[in-house]
From TrEMBL:
<keyword id="KW-0328">Glycosyltransferase</keyword>
<keyword id="KW-0808">Transferase</keyword>
<dbReference type="GO" id="GO:0016757">
    <property type="term" value="F:glycosyltransferase activity"/>
</dbReference>
<keyword id="KW-0660">Purine salvage</keyword>
<dbReference type="InterPro" id="IPR029057">
    <property type="entry name" value="PRTase-like"/>
</dbReference>
<dbReference type="InterPro" id="IPR050054">
    <property type="entry name" value="UPRTase/APRTase"/>
</dbReference>
<dbReference type="InterPro" id="IPR005764">
    <property type="entry name" value="Ade_phspho_trans"/>
</dbReference>
<dbReference type="InterPro" id="IPR000836">
    <property type="entry name" value="PRTase_dom"/>
</dbReference>
<comment type="function">
    <text>Catalyzes a salvage reaction resulting in the formation of AMP, that is energically less costly than de novo synthesis.</text>
</comment>
<feature type="domain" description="Phosphoribosyltransferase">
    <location>
        <begin position="65"/>
        <end position="165"/>
    </location>
</feature>
<dbReference type="Pfam" id="PF00156">
    <property type="entry name" value="Pribosyltran"/>
</dbReference>
<keyword id="KW-0963">Cytoplasm</keyword>
<comment type="similarity">
    <text>Belongs to the purine/pyrimidine phosphoribosyltransferase family.</text>
</comment>
<comment type="pathway">
    <text>Purine metabolism; AMP biosynthesis via salvage pathway; AMP from adenine: step 1/1.</text>
</comment>
<protein>
    <recommendedName>
        <fullName>Adenine phosphoribosyltransferase</fullName>
        <ecNumber>2.4.2.7</ecNumber>
    </recommendedName>
</protein>
<comment type="subunit">
    <text>Homodimer.</text>
</comment>
Length: 190
């Protein structure tokens, strides 16, 4: 080969699909549930960054003022997104975990009932809020989060999730409420 010729750079290896980082655990927490575990995605730094970037990108120029996220895995994503977008972070926690005066919303899960709370001074009325969680299944948790944001006078811009379980209908419920919903991947089944 003449000295003036160079070989082309090798193409970078193709990134694996984000869905390959999600572990499925059968019969957890109760028989019949196929639990989609995002903690295995969090354990891979590149996959975690891709998930945070994928959830953040659609909202970079949407005038967001607050990232609110659902207890507990939603905190991991929401906190990273708030940092990446330079926004405040507001936790929506399980009942009894917040120390200040709170508003509470109860809901049903695919395998039980629960309540979540938000500090009543979490953000100013009219704040443009993005709601984040790791997964949407039946929609109970997300709908409770939406209701709390609305009760505080927030303007819900959208909701974002890493995983959608479309067979359980949660995303359809949110969209029927007029909530713009973004997901990074979907898995069939429960």
């Amino acid at each position: 080969m003449p000295a003036s010729e160079t070989l082309p750079e090798p193409a970078p290896p193709e990134e694996p699909q984000l869905s390959s980082f999600i572990r499925t655990i059968p019969d957890f927490p109760v028989p019949g549930i196929q639990f989609r575990d995002v903690t295995t995605l969090f354990q891979d730094a590149r996959a975690f960054r891709r998930a945070v970037d994928g959830l953040s990108a659609p909202f970079a120029d949407r005038g967001l003022e607050v990232i609110a996220a659902m207890d507990a895995r939603g905190f991991i994503l929401g906190g990273a997104m708030a940092y990446a977008l330079g926004l405040p972070f507001v936790p929506i926690r399980k009942k009894g975990k917040l120390p200040g005066t709170t508003l509470m919303e109860s809901y049903t899960l695919e395998y039980g009932e629960a309540s979540v709370e938000i500090h009543e001074d979490a953000f100013a009325a009219g704040a443009r809020v993005l709601l984040i969680d790791d997964l949407i299944a039946t929609g109970g948790t997300a709908i409770a989060g939406v209701r709390l944001i609305e009760r505080l006078g927030g303007e819900l811009v959208a909701a974002g999730f890493v995983v959608d379980l479309p067979d359980l209908g949660g995303r359809r419920k949110l969209e029927a409420m007029g909530v713009e919903t973004h997901v990074l991947m979907a898995f069939d089944g429960e």
